[in-house]
Amino acid sequence: MKITRSSSPQNFITTKNRKSIELFEDYVEAINEILLKKGSVKNVDLCKYFGVSNATVSKNIRRLIKEELVKSEKYKNIFLTKNGKTLAEKSNTRHEILYKFLTKLGVPNKIAEVDSEGMEHHISKETLKIMKKFNNSN
Fold first, then answer.
1. How far apart are the C-alpha atoms of 125 and 120, rounded to whole Å?
2. Largest Cα–Cα distance in the chain?
3. Is this structure's pTM higher than 0.85?
4. Ramachandran class of 72: left when φ > 0, alpha when ψ lies in -120 to 50, beta otherwise
């Protein structure tokens, strides 16, 4: 089998490191979105949003609290900390830049929405900057 550029151990390490914050980004984005729509966020809202159990959401909320991205009390609302809000904004911005880039290339809206959701977690700042420049130039 031919070795490709993607076969580099460093590439795998970079992807693994980016993947480690993917869950955090997804959760803070979801919390932010639900908060804007409903005005408050509870575990049950995240269960519905992600289609997972309360145990899964509770475990992930504990991880987010440990990382100082959210605050929560048992059976109460979940709030983003300043760091959580910043991460949600950055993630939303990356998602929007990718979505616009893909649609400018001719990717149908629905496909661009799905693809940009996965790509936003793994794209470098440098590539994103070029995509943003491309979006603004056309």
1. 10
2. 54
3. no
4. beta
